Amino acid sequence: MVHSTTLLAAAAASLLFSLPASADGIYTKNSPVLQVDARSYDKLIAQSNHTSMLEFYAPWCGHCQSLKPAYEKAAKNLKGLAKVAAINCDEEPNKPFCGSMGVQGFPTLKIIKPGKKAGKPVVEDYQGQRTAKAIVDAMVDKIPNHVNRVADKTLDEWLATGNDTAKAVLFSDKGTTSALLKALAIDFLGSISIAQIRDKDTKAVELFGISSYPTFVLLPGGDKEAVVYDGEMKKEPMSAFLAQVAPPNPDPAPAVPKAAKNSSGKNTKKASKDSSSFSSASASHSSADASSAKATATAETLEQASNPTESPSPNVVSEDDPKPVPVPNIGTLLQMLETEEQLQQACLTSKSHICILTLLPAKRDPAAPLSEDVQTALKSLGEISAKHKRWSFFTLPASNPGASALRTSLSLVADSDVEVLAINARKAWYKRYVRTSFTRDAVDDWVDSVKMGEGKKETLPESLVVPAPAAATTAKVKEEPEVREIKLDGKNTKGDEPFKVEFMEEISDEEVERLMREAEQGARAREGGNAHDEL
């Protein structure tokens, strides 16, 4: 005999755990942020002549959603000067590529600069603040500088070099080279030599009859007269002005056909895949004053000490090409807590529920790959996080000051090892994963044991717990739970009165399991009574 109580408990549990998930990205088609994937990365970013910033994100990541407004604002300010792009690492085809780029959490930002060899850019982590201004400043500083700095003593030499080719010069009263001029020099590299001359170089100023600043002059080459630009100092009109003597370089460059190969004595030609031209180089810079300090950088490009590495290529190779080393699919990546404040608000407030924290070891060499233990742990926790949706799973990098404080307070080993912790700040306890294996089954068993309350829990030091935000502690009038009617076959077993189930807005995993156990125990007791009555 099937009892209504058991059915209702199962129905309630089913409703409580049926949480819809969205796989859509967080940037729309109209967003100023360029959206790429594992296949288009090479064409749009790696082959580009311009510096790019690439955000690695997941749609479910709260910090990624918080970054979106600032990231889109930065993209607008950098339009035509540098690329601001994003890739959804939660999509299956993109996961191997995200893993090959060393992504450990979300959001991860990387700056990608053109390298000495075409198609082999230099990649480095962005370690700055997640604000629009900080991102713009960092990107402007990383724009390659192909602008010639010409002074009175070098003017004759510059004019004589390639006299038949076109040149352009900006006369300025500023000592720095603007991002706008750098971007123009990139667009016309190889066709128009672009220079900047200061107002204090009086010989050059008098030669060209310059009376105001900034003034942009085009020298078409040969015996042709110089042309003074009289438009706005913005990317699009200035590019059109220069295009009257030479077209801008396509970005990315058109694909070069592969060399013909001899197969079975027959000459066959294999054309490369069509490379669509991504044309953002001639777009207008949204700033009204492109030569202002907001969009300027020093003449010399400064390299940050972040151990830049060469970008991997995500291209699919043909059967004739050498087989690359396979990149493991590390599965669902966990959200990273990059600041101490993020750690506290996510896991260490007096109202925080259970967090599963993976403390990453310190990397002496940022370019070195993650250890096998770390990769296995992250993959296992990423996979089981989908199973335990009501718990929060995070990674905590060693660069977060809160990681060191947490290790010290809990008397954990040095930061050279990966640690996995379950923390419940609301109830002031934590539990450490002490097994030697980080396989999926082992980690899943441990999480299940924490969920069932098995094993010893350690006391979480009070010094680690911070007060909950005021909004979370504001008293609220308790509302009556919604009561919905559920009828089985139109009636219950005792008469015409329909069954009533109270649906609560929020309930913990432990509470659901307790209710399920009580319902099953009651059902078994009633089954025993009914069987006795039938004897």
From TrEMBL:
Its main location: endoplasmic reticulum. PANTHER family: PROTEIN DISULFIDE-ISOMERASE A6. One of its GO terms (cellular component) is endoplasmic reticulum lumen. It is an enzyme of class 5 (isomerase). GO terms for molecular function: protein disulfide isomerase activity; protein-disulfide reductase activity. One of its GO terms (biological process) is response to endoplasmic reticulum stress. Coiled coil: none annotated. Residues 301-316 have a biased composition (Polar residues). Its EC number is 5.3.4.1. It is found in: Endoplasmic reticulum lumen. Residues 244-329 are annotated as: Disordered. Residues 274-299 have a biased composition (Low complexity). Gene3D superfamilies: Glutaredoxin (3.40.30.10). InterPro entries: Thioredox_PDIA6_C (IPR057305), Thioredoxin-like_sf (IPR036249), Thioredoxin_CS (IPR017937), Thioredoxin_domain (IPR013766). Residues 1-23 form the signal peptide. This is protein disulfide-isomerase. Keywords: Disulfide bond, Isomerase, Redox-active center, Signal. Pfam families: Thioredox_PDIA6_C, Thioredoxin. Residues 8-145 form the Thioredoxin domain. It catalyses: Catalyzes the rearrangement of -S-S- bonds in proteins.
